Each structure stands twice: as C-alpha cells, then as structure tokens.
Amino acid sequence: MSRKFFSGPFILILPSILAIGFVIIIPLIFSFYTSFTSYKLTRPDSLFNFVGLRNYERLIDNTKFWYAFGRTILFLAVVLNLELLFGLGIALLINKITWGQRTLRTIMMFPMMFSPILVGFQWKYIFNDNIGLLNNFLYLFGYESAIPWLIDKYLAMGSIMVAEIWANTSIFAILLLAGLLGIPRDPIEAARVDGCNSWQVFKNITLPFLMPFIFIALTIRSLDVGRAYDIVHIMTGGGPAMRTELIWTMIARIGYKDANMGFANAMSYVSIILSIAFTYYFFTKLVAARRDLGQQ
Amino acid sequence: MAEVKLKNITKKYGDVTAVQNMSLDIPHNEFLVLVGPSGCGKSTTLRMIAGLEEISGGEIYIGDQVVNEKDPKDRNISMVFQNYALYPHMTVEENLGFSLKIAKEDKEEIETRVKEAVQILGLEELRKRKPSQLSGGQRQRVAMGRAIVRRPDAFLFDEPLSNLDAKLRTQMRTEIKKLHQKLKTTVIYVTHDQVEAMTLADRIVIMKDGVIEQIGTPLELFEKPATKFVATFIGSPSMNMIEAKITNISGELYMETNDGISVLIPKHKKNSLAEGQKIFFGFRAEDIVPLKFGQKPKNSWSMTSKVNLAEPLGTETLIFTNLGNTEVVSRMFTPELVNSNDDLEFALNLDRTYLFDGDTGLAI
C-alpha cells in the first residue's frame, strides 16, 4: 500500500498538488477559518479568538451590506446587458466589412489595453463637474449649469457604468465576432432561399448559432464585473455617501481600512455565492443552447 | 412551375471569369443537369439562379420575369445544398415548415403540407428529431422535404449526393428521379459525377472553364460528343484517346501515332481531313475487343499487345494494355479470367472511332 502511494504517477503530480495546495487550498481554508474569528489585522492575536457564526449573524442584519449586494446585482445586470447589446452590434457590423476588418478589430481592442485604474482616472477626468471634458462640451452647446456627474446620487452610478462599458464592450465584440465567423454559411443561405429577410435570418438562424458564445461571454464578464473594485475606487471611492458602494469596495474597506478581516472574509464568502449563482445560471443556459444546436 | 432562362450570363470575381456568356433555356418540367470538373462554374451558375451570387452580366428569367435584382426570397425557388444546410436547432418538422412559417401560412396549411412531404419521403418516425440525431441519408431527405413543401417554381440541387456513401447515393438517385416524376417541376441539378448526370438528366449541360462545352440528352453526349473534353468526360471508363497525325500512304489516309503505328481512316471521315493535320483519335473501351473472348468487328484494325493489368468487375472485365506507348483500356462482357503479361490480340472497331482536331479539340 505504502509502496503504491509513493509510486511514479503520484510523485509526478506531487509538484502540482503542492502548488495548488499552497496557492489555493490553504488560503481558502485559512480565510474560511478567519470568517469565524474576530480577526483584526492590527491585533494578530485575535486570529485565535473564535466567535462562531457571529460574523455571519452581524452580516444578515447589516443593511449597508445588503444595499451593496443589491447594487452589485443592478450593476451587473445593466453593464452585462448593455455590453452584450453594443458588443453584438459591433460584431455584426465588423462581420459585414470585407476590407480593413483586421485593422478595425485591433482598434476595437484598444480600451482593453489600458489598466482599469487608468480608465478610471480618465473617466473621472471626463466626468469632473468643474474641469471635465463632458461638462465643457455641454457648455459649448449652451448648457451652462455644471452637471455633478460623480457627485449626484443617481448619476454617479451611471457614470461608473459608462466607464465600465467603454472599457470592456470589446470583449463581447471579440467573442461574438468569433462566433459569427464560425457560423456555417449554408443554413444562412438556405434560410434566404426559404424566404427570410435579413432580420428573419438574424433572428432564426444567426442568433441561435450565437447563443453559446453569448453565454460564454456572459459567464466571463459576470465574474469580471462581479469583482469590480478598481474602477469604482478610483472614480468615486464608493461615494457619494456610499451610493456607489459595491460588494468588493465594501469588503476592501472593512478588511483593510477598518482592519476587520474576520468580518470582511465572512462577507466575501457570502458574495461568492453571487458569483457562483451567475456562473451556474449562465453555464446551464450555455449547455442548453449547445444541446439545442445538436452540439455536445 | 416555370421555365428558367439564362441570357448571356457572366460572373466575374475581380479579374477571374467564373462563368462566361452562358445562355440556356430550361423548359417546364425539365430535369437539367449541369456537370463538369470542379471549378468549371456550374455551382456558380446555380447560385446565380438562386440569387445567392450576384450576376456580373446578362439576364436570368424565371417564368417571364427578370430576376437579376430580386432577393432569393422573392424568386420562389427551392435549393438543396451539398451539406444539407438543415437548421440544427429545429426538429425535422420545424425544418420542413420553416419556409411556410416565414411566409405566414396558417397553421393547418403548414401541417398539411409538412405531412404530405413527410409521407412522400418516409420521414414519419423522425418528425420530432433534431438533425444531429439523423443519418446522412435521412438528413438529405429532410433537405429535399424542405424544398418540396414550398411548391416552388424550380428546384435547385447543388451536388446533393456527394456526401453520401456509394450505396446510399445510388438509392437516393433513384428517389430523386421518382420525386421529379411525381412533382413535375423544373429541376436544375449540379454534379461533378457523370454517372449521376447520365442517369438523372433529361438534358445535360457540360461545362468547362466557365463555358458550355455541349448541351444534349445523355445519349447524344455519349454517342456524339462535340469535343474531346466531352468524349473523355462522359462514359466510364473514360474514352481512350490517342494523339496522331494524318499521313498519306499510296493514296490512302492513315492516322499515324507518335510511335509510328498507322491505322487506316474509316471512309466516312476521310473528306474532312487533310494530310499533316494533327488529330486525336478516340474509341470507347468496348470497341477494342480481345479476339480470344469476343467477336471481330466488321471493319477493324488488329494488334497484338501484352496485358498490363486486368480488373474483373463481375459483369465485365477491364483489360489494360498498350497501343504503342499509350495505355488503353478494353472492356469485355464475358466473365473470363485474364492474366497480366499474357499476349492478346485486340481488334479496334474502326466504325466507332471518334476523331478530334488536335488544336481545337472539336469533333471531326
């Protein structure tokens, strides 16, 4: 038995087991443990102060957390839908182009080449109520009262969404363009001969073929948007009066600024449920869409 | 039902001309086959008729209307594609009814017509299945069913059988023929397989390099090929073709091959030939007879030659041998065993030789 345990195959996969252990499993167990303690970064000895489910109980009663939770879902819903819509439109247009397609594809990816922090700074400047590009632009057209884009309680969230959409729509466009290029020509031609106009071809043939790609893009982006932190931190810092506070800006604030790591970790574990739920939902849809097309 | 007319149709891709100045009248109810080697422009022609390819010059009529500028959807034609082109996310039933649904026919009408197609093609059991759950032959049937339900003016087939295995292909060929007899519609059928063309067609159009080589019934093409290309393309095995020059030996015209073999020109061909003219002379495999197993033709030329290879095919045997330096094939219909390297005497039936001009390839 022991001979078998240290046999060739086991030794060969040992390095990866160790790597995964150190990088993923141990931190996971450790952080999960800390969510049951009153661990504060400033007082290391509190690591051993086991408090049971108290962090989670506090969480359930914490309305600020649930507002951030709800706001994150809203942020996800708006951003994902609009990115899908714009990305699909861009992909369809680029797919029509026969000359200069590669160049356009490259240009389209420019926003992805910038760090989200810099994107945040740039949009913060554009949206600045005083010296920002947008207000100055509006001023040119006679709109003289400065709009407080990042300070107004409703506009601030919208402004962040705009920045997020600007930066990442091309991910959708690229993935959907790949999907469009992969659609066989025959069914589309058959549909045209069968009497479809362009819209009917799109609705009945192109879209079903594109569905798997849409759900892959949604899965990737839902994880991405769900952990949004940098862009919000830069543009509003969660303000005004926490109106743009998302789950991760809140967790980071409580974990690092308030040094309340045990509580922050408890929040993280609850928020992970959100990501898992989105991923699970989109994957179920993806599998269904693929089965619908007769792909396994 | 309608006739289809092509008037000086041309298709250009940049500098490349795919189809040049093609004119063709296809009357009601005709089964017309476009055949030719790959790249000859036959599929392009079909796709122009369907409206999937723009026309660079000329006019296409369906019925009495010019359809050049019409979308495929307004041409009332059906097309069956090489890869079936079924809609993978729809069941057989939905595939069949799709065009009617788009045309906003009412549900009962759709149901009746789908039912009709399903019965004609024997798809009853498969109605609820998706294309991925069907075999190649079944998919092909659904593709044809989808064409039938529309009751189109014309059916277009683009190499519909080339993805099927040999046995199924023969079977589907028969079915297509029966279907045409039942539906009485104009059919334009593209294939590269001359056997398919011969068995299915009322008339065959042979194309090469974007130009029509010959139009005719299958037998006309077989018996009276207009060009050397048609002669070698139609018929299996391919017609034997030997390069020669016309010589005059003491007042009689002979064709002399490059390796010095002289064969007397049959009387009825003499008038149109001149001494020194380069020609090809062709003859079909069944017209060169191994005398040991067959009857000597009345007007013949004989040679003794070694058998390179014999292929017994059951009902017939193909014998490969040499005429001078050129390999020729002889076909005999007696099931006799022939050994390679045997010397056999062959007689060439001179009444059934074909002569083609050495430069233009036109029949003489």
Characterization of this structure:
- The complex is a heterodimer of chains A (296) and B (364).
- With 296 residues, chain A is mainly alpha-helical.
- Chain A has a single domain (64-292), classed as MetI-like (MetI-like fold), CATH 1.10.3720.10.
- Helices cover 73% and strands 0% of the residues of chain A.
- Chain A is built from 13 helices and no strands.
- In chain A, helix 4 (63-96) crosses helix 8 (155-181), helix 6 packs across helix 8 and helix 12 (247-257) runs antiparallel to helix 13.
- The longest helix of chain A has 34 residues, at 63-96.
- Chain A is globular, with a radius of gyration of 24 Å.
- The model of chain A has no long low-confidence stretch (mean pLDDT 89).
- Chain B has 364 residues and is of the alpha+beta class.
- In chain B, 23% of the residues lie in helices and 35% in strands.
- Chain B has eight helices and 20 strands.
- Chain B has helices at residues 42-50, 92-102, 107-121, 136-148, 166-183, 194-200, 218-223, 228-233, and strands at 4-13, 16-26, 31-35, 57-62, 65-66, 77-80, 154-158, 186-191, 203-208, 211-216, 240-249, 252-257, 262-264, 278-283, 288-290, 300-312, 317-323, 326-332, 343-349, 354-357.
- In chain B, the strands form four sheets. Chain B has a six-stranded mixed sheet with strand order 6-7-8-3-9-10, with helices on both faces. A five-stranded antiparallel sheet of chain B has the order 13-12-11-14-20.
- Chain B starts with a strand and ends in a 7-residue tail after the last strand.
- The chains are: A mainly alpha (296), B alpha+beta (364).
- Chain A binds chain B through residues 184, 186-187, 189-197, 200, 204-205, 208-209, 292-295, and chain B through 50-52, 71-73, 75, 77-79, 81-89, 98-99, 102-103, 130-133, 146, 150.
